[in-house]
Design brief:
With 221 residues, this protein is α+β, with helices and mostly antiparallel strands. The chain is 45% helix and 13% strand. The radius of gyration is 22 Å and the shape is globular.
């Protein structure tokens, strides 16, 4: 038995990955499903990078099992079910969750997989993702990469079986520029007073409201 938790050093994880080259390593938890809101995902991530074979004992649902296989953060996740089949509705659904700082979990079918992955890349950004299928069955497989890479992988070879797509959370957004602020203020001023426009843009871009109020006054003049 080797303890593995938030305070485990990086070299503990490295030693476990090295042991996987010739031994079976089981990650066990005394507090529910392993890897759900615990640091286990980093061990899976590094094991996948070292090309170790990973499998899971399924828990309550395929969504949870796929999360444990993905190597993506599990401290926050949002289950999205199946995306709409129509392109417009699918894009609208993805736009709604593009800024959610959580790993997203989708169910998908083989024939729609490549198209859905491409739509995710377009609306969410080309994030790290994983496609898990046939979990707990003979041909279980988890493929990792960016959304565009995975879309290309399955474009000409739609997979069979039950499929779960997990998509990593968005990266940190770059700070808004002065040009971004001016553009947002000009648009807001067509609808709102100077004060309300400054407040709306401050909340949207994370900038100082007083500075934006002064700039909105200049633009209004």
């Amino acid at each position: 038995m080797v303890p593995y938790h938030d305070h485990s050093a990086e070299n503990v994880r490295q030693r476990l990955v090295e042991r996987m080259a010739g031994e079976s390593v089981a990650l066990l938890s005394d507090a529910g499903t392993p890897l759900i809101s615990d640091p286990g995902y980093k061990l899976v991530r590094d094991a996948r990078a070292a090309r170790r074979r990973i499998t899971t004992l399924p828990g309550p649902s395929a969504a949870i099992a796929a999360l444990t296989l993905s190597g993506l953060p599990t401290d926050r996740f949002l289950f999205m079910g199946f995306l709409p089949s129509k392109a417009k509705a699918r894009g609208d659904t993805l736009d709604e969750v593009a800024a959610v700082r959580a790993t997203l979990v989708f169910y998908e079918s083989g024939p729609r997989l490549s198209e859905s992955l491409s739509a995710m890349a377009a609306h969410l950004g080309d994030r790290e993702a994983a496609v898990s299928r046939e979990i707990s069955k003979t041909f279980e497989e988890t493929a990792c990469g960016t959304l565009s890479e995975l879309s290309a992988r399955y474009a000409d070879a739609p997979p069979k079986g039950e499929i779960v797509v997990t998509v990593g959370p968005p990266g940190e957004a770059p700070p808004a520029s002065a040009e971004d602020a001016d553009a947002a203020l000009r648009e807001a001023l067509t609808r709102l007073s100077v004060s309300k426009a400054a407040g709306e843009v401050a909340k949207k871009l994370g900038l100082d409201r007083r500075t934006l109020y002064d700039r909105a006054t200049e633009l209004k003049g």
